[in-house]
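Known limitations

Structure tokens in this collection are predictions and should be treated as such. Users comparing against experimental data should check residue numbering before alignment. To illustrate the layout, the record for Conjugative transposon protein TcpC is reproduced below. The input appears on top and the generated tokens appear beneath it.
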Amino acid sequence: MAGGLFWLLLFGGAFLSIRSANIVRLAAGKIAANAITRNQEQAINSAREVARALAVEWATWNGSPDDYNRRLGAFFKNASSFTLPDGIQEVVSASVVSVTGQQPQYRVQVLLHLRRLVPVTPAEAQAAAPVNVPVTQEDLLRWKQGGTWDQQKAIPVWRDYLLKVEVPVQVKENQAQAAGLPVIIANNQGEGVIKEPGYNESASQPFITFINQFLNLYYTGGSLANFLAPGASVTAVGGWKLESVDEVLVDNSTNPTRACVRATISASGAGRLTQRIFLKIKMERGSYLVEDLSAQPQ
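Generated tokens:
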């Protein structure tokens, strides 16, 4: 009886060991299948850079067909066949928002912030911000002669646009090449949601005073040593001025550990800007200390 029990336990243990090993191998196999290899990561990064660079050159129009073909010639052998659009346009920024597909073919989506010269009526031009109305040599000559705008003539004004494009890229042997010109696609980026803080208690006056002092130093670039908890990695910005602290909400008015602050700041040439800041607070020896500063609720 004892011998039978021994062999039963022995075979049972062996079965469980084999089963456990198979489960581990299966899990490891799934992880490996979903993991990105270093070569795949390099291919995706190469595709991103080529797509972004092509999108910028493709969307930059300066009125010179030769210049346009020369710039696109860095990506295509037959760039001389491409037609330059009639308008004048420059790229302010370009960001890769997604990469799909698998080696060697990738589809890269790039979001472009553009400034384009758009003809408008003189009345619309006068209503536009002065910085968006370029002054030409013709304008200078007319004003020098005491002339005024022709009320029937359209005036070019800079307008800002967001444009999303898809760029096909092919990667072979870690070399990325454009496989076609960018195609304009729908810009459905508006999917983000600003989280509400969830703090509904008004802060005490001593805490508001602390926040004013902290943010004043934070935006002007002063020393935060007396305001930070040990280990906090908050660095003063500098170059801005705190105009006002407009609202301070906390999770607990008596002993706050989380705070949502709405403040108004300003800088030379920038005017006023509203900021909503989330702070993680620690009370130590009767003093408030900042543990973290973030753009979303802690």
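For this record: The chain has two domains: 39-77+88-185, 201-294. Residues 2-34 form the longest helix (33 residues). Please report discrepancies through the issue tracker.
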